[in-house]
Amino acid sequence: MAYGSYIDDQLWRAVLPDLVLNPDAAIYKFWRELRNDPAMANPGLPCTPEIPTEAGVQQGFTSGVVIGWNADDGAYIANG
Hints:
The chain is an alpha+beta fold. It has one domain (about 5-75). Helices cover about 20% and strands about 20% of the residues. The protein has helices at about 5-10, 25-35, and strands at about 50-55, 55-60, 65-70, 75. It has a four-stranded antiparallel sheet, covered by helices on one side. A hairpin with a 5-residue loop joins strand 2 (about 55-60) and strand 3. The longest helix is centred in the middle third of the chain and has 11 residues, at about 25-35. The chain is globular. The N and C termini lie far apart (about 25 Å).
C-alpha cells in the first residue's frame, strides 16, 4: 500500500474529522511502520493534532502511544 492511501486518510480522520493527513510527515510514516509490524505496539488512531513541545513535535494516539519527532532523533515512541 502506498503512503497516503484513501484508507489511511479515512483512518487518520476517524477520531478528528478535520485532521489532515500529510503522507510525507515522519510521524505518519512511523505510525504506518508500527501498524504494519506485528512485533510493535499498535498505536491506534490519532486523537490529537501534532503538538509542538520542547522536545520537538508530538502526537497522541487512541492506544495511549505518543509518537514524537525531532530533527536529532527522527520519529520515536515518546512515552514508552
